[in-house]
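User: Quick one: structure for sequence A, then sequence B.

Assistant: Sequence A:
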Amino acid sequence: MHGRPTKPGRVRILFNLLLLSVALVFTASNAFFFLVAWEVMALVAYCLVSFEHEKKKARDAGVLFLIMSHAGTGLLLIAFLVLASACGSLDFSSFHLLASRLTPVQQGTVFLLFFFGFA
């Protein structure tokens, strides 16, 4: 052995990194750390999707996944910026009662941004 991880070893490492990043997404207490963890999760998932990069289908799937995940992240960022501008903070605890202070248009916009960002 040359000290390099085998293919199954690399998959295990990437899968464990994915699990760690998902845990970080769920434990984030503000929008900034949520988006950082979300981006790490997306990049590690991209590595897993395109793991067999020798195959054209895997490369194509990886690129499509990367484009879609970054588009979703952009929508989530905009939604968090709308919420942060309305309450002055990025903390999730400050978003708790924010809906009553948003106009119906802002509520609908934030809903659609989150819906399509997570979809």
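Sequence B:
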Amino acid sequence: MPRKVKIILNPMADMHNAWRVANDLRPVINDYGGADWSGTVYPTHATALAKQAGEQGYDMVIAMGGDGTVHEVVNGLMQLPADRRPILGVVPVGSGNDFAHAIGVPLRSDLALAHALDGKPSPVDIGLMTDDHGRKEYFDNTLGIGFDGVVTIRSHKLPLLRGFLMYLTAVIQTILLNHDPALMQLETDGRKWEQRNLMLVLCNGPREGGGFLVAPDAKPDDGILHYAMIEMCSRFTMFRIVPEVMKGTHGRFKQVTLGSCKKISISADRPQYIHADGEIYTSFGSNLRKLTVEILPGALQIVRG
């Protein structure tokens, strides 16, 4: 077990049930020598707490919450020099828990915590987005642009639903109300092209939204970004594609392009709505049209399953 452990808890995760779960986990923590706790109280608080933990000499930071909590903790850790970044542990207490699935940690919270405290870390890739204002955002699982971003915005407006059902409802709403493809100029490692896209998702892990297998072949330690693009198509076709995304077989449609790269630059003819690991980066009213995304191989030490 690392010498000094900080647990960052989002008590609002899992529809406010995370606090109760955390309380039940205290015996596990005591069995492994104890840990210090910090709870988040405002958006991006976990980012500040994670960075502070590294500056204070913690060997490990455990993110206890959903994908959003892990995302914020990763962004805090990545602000530190590589030789001062604590090991990351993940205890999934959220709705989707897609990153926990990608790295293979147990989805039962007590088993995940014991594994984080006793397991061995290994390097995992991290994605980095830089927008045309020079802002940087790290992501551990997926970055969604266009349709995917709007789905995330809409899912946050469905407080009575959770998990996969919440995302599926938001998907249906977006197909019906926001069928608005953008003309994109794209440049990857060795190719430039232009096409009208409804959706572009850049993936470090295979799934998002609690079970949509957007990039079935993506692995968080393969050193590349996987992407899935859906070109301009009818609403009817989108309704046909969505069930295939659940199974990871959407690549059979001619409107879908699956590929990989290490870096991609995107320029669109209209504002782009973006999420990073399910956290809204740009929303309605934003005017962001250009961004670059790259993979940082082995950037973070994480206890995996």
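The first strand starts at residue 5 and ends at 9. The longest helix spans residues 163-177.

User: Thanks, that's what I needed.
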